[in-house]
Amino acid sequence: MSVQRTRIFAALCFAAIAALMSVTAVSAQGGPGMGMGSQGIMGPAAVRELFKSLNLTDDDLDKLDKILEADEISLEKSQNEISILQTKVANLLLDTSPDMSAIESAISKSLTYEKDVRMIQIKRQVAIRGVFGEDRWQSILLLVREARMSERAGKFANSFSAKGLSAQEANRYSRLLAALRRIM
Question: What is the DSSP letter of 162?
Fold first, then answer.
């Protein structure tokens, strides 16, 4: 019954996100968060309930941390190389006669690093999905999407408040939030 409830809740959240995304396009003229309340789409109470439905254990969170740590250095190096190459292209474009072959070379290198980043992200997602199962994976994806929207609106701390959670739940919640920030 709990699995069915989680699926229904996830489906309702997904439908709400899809509906609100179309509204967001219309209300975007009002600035970030307009038409979405003061958090993201779900709000802090729904986020906490979704977290509770995950029934995370410390072992689950240890496994999640291990997955995220596996390629962390490679991921950071690739992301740094992309930034360096983007800066190089921007600087080359400042010349009155930009060296197109140098620009093309920098972009090609950047694309290689972007592929590396994407493959690490995919590898992480597959591993997380394998550890947590399909239902909990879908819930984690909803939390990641909510975290991204809340972050963009500058409301991450409010949307992901641990208010009303036990000390043990708050600790696990904090660990999950740290992992979500790494996944984002």
Answer: -
